[in-house]
Amino acid sequence: VAGENFDQSPLRRTFKSKVLAHYPQNIEWNPFDQDAVNMLCMPKGLSFRTQADNRDPQLHSFIITREDGSRTYGFVLTFYEEVTSKQICTAMQTLYQMHNAEQYSSVCASSSCSMDSLASSIDEGDATSLAKLQRYNSYDISRDTLYVSKCICLITPLPFMQACKKFLIQLYKAVTSQQPPPLPLESYVHNILYEVPLPPPGRSLKFYGVYEPIICQRPGPNELPLSDYPLREVFELLGLENLVQVFTCVLLEMQILLYSQ
Fold first, then answer.
1. Is residue 235 within a helix (H) or strand (E), and if so which, with residue range?
2. What separation in angstroms does the CA of 131 have from each of 37, 103, 177, 208, 253?
3. How far apart are CA 175 and CA 190, in angstroms?
4. What is the SS3 assignment for 64?
5. Mean pLDDT over all residues of the chain?
6. Given this model, what pLDDT does residue 182 score?
7. SS3 sequence, 14-43?
8. CB of 249 within 8 A of CB of 256?
9. What is the pLDDT of residue 247?
10. DSSP-assigned letters across all residues of 70-108
11. Which of 41-50, 58-67, 123-132 has the lowest mean pLDDT?
């Protein structure tokens, strides 16, 4: 388990994640930092869900800034896939049995009763709330389907957010689709890694994803730097007043700290 979150129910806990594979294995000018990428791809760690939970894919991005000031940009699609290991499902069931036993004991202790006389002595409200807790926040191996988080990530020298987002979504659809794409998945990964070049400054580049073409554009030397992030989202997240205040702080060269979950 990642962190001290044992008070949480097992499905609300986070677990230690790891990098399963990365390609290419090594680039001299941009060595792969496994710990940094792992932490930035899954900052909260590995998480589990059941069929009752929301499992919509989520996109986020990150920046790795090196000592010399050079930057590398990461774009991540996190999704949930079904757990096929019987061992992991059994372990989750065991964690829930232990958690429910602890909840049972704590409710009993708060009601100053023995384990044997819980049914007769416990306050009716406590019993109802405990029953609800176990019903809505539980896992039964015979009834529930267990899912675990997984992510695919593209690391690029320039922040081509829209192009990376479209490619990752298309790759995810290919992984989960009943109809496989025309070519093996490895072909699309090889294509974007080795056959799609960076567009020259001031030029656009069109390349083929898994299902649809993708276009990315690079500003010229005399243009503003590439900013592929939608401004509308900034206004929606921060609001107009906060955004004006942040912009004012930037112009005044003040230190700014943005805190978010």
1. helix 231-238
2. 41, 11, 38, 53, 55
3. 16
4. strand
5. 84
6. 86
7. CECCCCCCCCCCCCCCCCCCHHHHHHHHCC
8. yes
9. 94
10. -EEEEEEEEEEEE---HHHHHHHHHHHHHHHHHHHHHHH
11. 123-132
- Name the one residue in this structure whose structure tokens are 């962190």: 3
Q: Residues 15, 47: contact at Cβ < 8 Å? A: yes
Half-sphere exposure of 101 (CA within 13 A, CB side): 6
Question: What was the pLDDT predicted at 204?
Answer: 93
Distances (CA, A) of 242 to 20, 189, 234, 235: 40, 40, 10, 9
Angstrom distance (rounded) from CA 156 to CA 75: 8
3-state SS class at 222 = coil
- pLDDT value of residue 93: 87
**Strands 146-156 and 48-50: what pairing?**
antiparallel
Inter-residue contact 111 to 103 (CB < 8 Å): no
Angle at 146 between CA 144 and CA 147, to 5 degrees: 145
Could you give the CA distance from residue 135 to residue 213 in angstroms, rounded to a whole number? 46
Return the closest-CA partner of residue 166 out of 198, 220, 201, 206: 206
How confident is the model at residue 250, as a pLDDT?
95
Q: Write out pLDDT tens, residues 108-119.
A: 666 555 545 444
What's the mean pLDDT in 168-183? 89
Helix or strand or coil: residue 110? helix
Give the SS3 label for residue 150.
strand
Alpha helices, DSSP H only, in 111-203?
118-121, 124-136, 161-176, 185-190
Break the chain into its structural domains and give their ranges: 1-104+134-157, 230-260
Distance of CA 93 to the CA centre of its chain: 24
Tokens of 18: 């790891």
What's 193's DSSP letter?
Answer: I
